[in-house]
Each structure stands twice: as C-alpha cells, then as structure tokens.
Amino acid sequence: HDDGYLEVIGFTMTSLAALQVGGHGERLTQCREVVLTTSKAIPVQVDGEPCKLAASRIRIALRNQATMVQKAKRRSAAPLHSDQQPVPEQLRIQVSRVSMHDYEALHYDKEQLKEASVPLGTVVVPGDSDLELCRAHIERLQQEPDGAGAKSPTCQKLSPKWCFLDATTASRFYRIDRAQEHLNYVTEIAQDEIYILDPELLGASARPDLPTPTSPLPTSPCSPTPRSLQGDAAPPQGEELIEAAKRNDFCKLQELHRAGGDLMHRDEQSRTLLHHAVSTGSKDVVRYLLDHAPPEILDAVEENGETCLHQAAALGQRTICHYIVEAGASLMKTDQQGDTPRQRAEKAQDTELAAYLENRQHYQMIQREDQETAV
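Structure (tokenized):
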C-alpha cells in the first residue's frame, strides 16, 4: 500500500531466526523518515554488498516503490502455484561423501566427481527440510548400529568439518557454508542423492575397489623413536625442524618434536615452521603443526607481514587454506601492502578460493561483533 510512510519493524534475536519458519517481527510504528545513529563500526549491507560501516548517522527516507520478484515458499503449508510441483511429505535420499583431494581435482566435472564419491547411507527427512535438519540426520547415520550407516563401504567416521555440496544449481559442484545451511532446502541442492565434502576423508577409503583396513588407523605413518635412542640427548636445533618442514619430511619433523623440538621456532626472516610447510604444500605437516603447535602460530607474521594464510591464499592452496581457517586463523589481518588473505587469492586469480575466504571473513566479522555486544 503506497501511503507514503515507512513501516518500522522490530526484531529480537529469536524472532529474527524465526523468519525462516514463518515468523515475523513486531510492528512498531510508521514514519516518513528514519535517522539511525551508530557509535561504533558495524557490518552492514549496501545494495546487497557487505561492508563495515564506521560510526555514522544514517538517514532513511521513502523515495519510490519498485516491483519485486518473490521466491515461492517451499514449505508444504504454502499455497501451490499452477506450475509448482507439490513437496512430498518425506524424502528418501542417498548420501555420498567426497574427499577434499577428489573435490579439488574434479569439482569442474560433475560426472567424474559423482563416480569418485563414496556412499555413506540413506536418510529419510521431511520434504520441507532445510540443510540444518538434514545435517542432524546425516550425523546420526554412523551412530545407528543397525541402520543404513552401518552398511557404508567405508568405516571412517565423518569429520566434524564436513559440509554440503550443491550439485544442482550450477554447472559444477560448490560448497555451502555451514552458517548458511538454514537458508537452503534439501530439494534445492539435491534430487535423489545428496553430496557432502569431508576434508578428512582418507584417499584409501575413498575408493570402494581398494581394501579397507580392519584395524584402527595409526595416528601417524612414522615409527616412534625408541626411548633408548632418545636418552638424555639435547633438544634438536631449530634449523633441523626448518629443514624437515622444507623437505616435506613429516616423519623427521614428528621425531624432532617428540625429542623436544620447539614448533614455534623461526628462521632469520621470522618465518615459522608453518610458513615453510605452506610454501612446500605439505598438507600432512600443516595439519600436524596445527594440531600440536601453540595457537599463536596461526597469525604469526614474517618480515613482510604475511601470515601463513596469506601465503596459502597467494599460492592457491585451497585445502591448506581450509585447514588454517578452520583452526581459527584471522582473515582480517593485512600484510605490508594492506592485503587480506582474500585479496591475495584475488590477485592469484583464484576466484573460488577468494569467494570462500570472503564468506568466512564476513562470518568472522559477525562473530566478533556478537562477542563485543555480549561483553
């Protein structure tokens, strides 16, 4: 109704979340002009583009009306249009998972990636389920001793870092951020089969034609150093650790660490072991350092102000970037040129990696703002 007034609607955190399930805010008043005064920088969207707005005075006034295209609701309670198919009460969907190695190599080829996927089991979900609800069903697959998950050809459990893959809306697969799962319905990303990306899925178990070990996987492929050889020897020098990281010698690095080596050692250019591991592309060494080194290593900078994430982004190492981001590295730190990791990925012309880092950076900003508000 064009009465020349603006509607002012108020939301609590609860009612804002309830929008996804048909909730609504509280109508406060009508007015011809709104003035918002902020006292600190906050994340905002301007014409759909996210940015961080400094403390400012924002004036909002009615200019005109525009015709909008509204997406039809997929909920079963919504009225159906003549050309819209009814949503089934239940969906029975096959779940298959993809390793990070296969995803990086084949994500531009849907058919090959589907062939490389590993069946995990079958889930039955309501027809109007979003991905958050579907996630809960998938995670229960391997917890059911007599369920579909027990028949999975791989005994390796899902890692806590898995995410959904959209296999229908584009010409290739792409990842769906976990923070956006409540915005996507199962029927929007899958038909008869849903695909998930498990970054910790082992290559050996990712091929059904290869034998799966019946014994538990060892914690590392390296043999432990005998205690009799360790004795009371002096801790290894930092140069030995750096050399092991440079040579991608995972076993040697692990041996030196067990002998008392300092994983926070730096070379003359202030480069950490993690910097060297990233430069050689050693995923095993990177994961070992992330698991065993102090968290300060994530945002440690070398002489030119680069963190290990800057370096990985510039080299287009998507898997390593994923490991470092999930470990908690800052995506907002800048190097001496003022570039964030996302901007380094853009300069390397890796648009998909840049989009992933931008998404995680935006999510990190929101989390930080929430923490400041809570304090």
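The radius of gyration is 25 Å. Residues 6-61 form one domain.
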